[in-house]
Amino acid sequence: WLAPEGQSLVRIAGVPGVVVRGFQMLVGANQFGVEITGDCPGTRVENLRAVRFSDSNGTRRGVALAFLYLHDGASGTEAAPIVIHDVEVRNGGIGIQLGNESPIAGRYVPIRWVQLENCAVIGRGLDSGYQLILANALEQVTVTRSTFAFGACGISWFVKEARLLQNVRISHNSFHQLKNWMVWNDSIAVQEAVQVEQNLIARTSGA
Length: 207
Prior knowledge:
Blueprint lengths: L9 E4 L5 E3 L2 E5 L5 E6 L4 E10 L12 E10 L6 E9 L3 E5 L12 E7 L2 E3 L7 E6 L2 E7 L2 E12 L6 E7 L2 E11 L7 E6 L2 E3 L5
Parallel strand pairs: 1-4, 2-5, 3-5, 4-6, 5-7, 6-8, 7-9, 7-10, 8-11, 9-12, 10-13, 11-13, 12-14, 13-15, 14-16, 15-17
């Protein structure tokens, strides 16, 4: 499945209960593979195998976008979270991004009730690639039992205001062959209930 140039391959906007399952995708580094916005309780993205094509620096024509991008209030509920399960992304500049890097109408719109589990983001090498970007307002978000390898950074945080992160848990993941396994980019450390625990870090520099 090849995305037309300049478009997201799959876009889910404010629709509950959508299931995207079992596809192999070839997506340029300058395109989103799966994009989710708005209230989408019960939505599942699972069993995907994605390969990015890019220039030698991990971008395409100077642009790098996430394969999987949840933003603009993408949210599940406690009873019906958004679930990202068994998604594998290879060779991309950016694997997965949760959250907006910029405010909307002066405020950061939160991403809520998201479970990312049993996924893998495998880059091209230590000189390029952000495996997982966590940006600003995130609430009730879990990243677990996933693998992040062969890139410049495993987890990259962008959190511009205090207490934008609420109940975010990063646990039981594997990080290896990364230049840095975790980086806080110009971020404010005063947050609510952020847990990073019981992760395996191998052949990787510190945070």
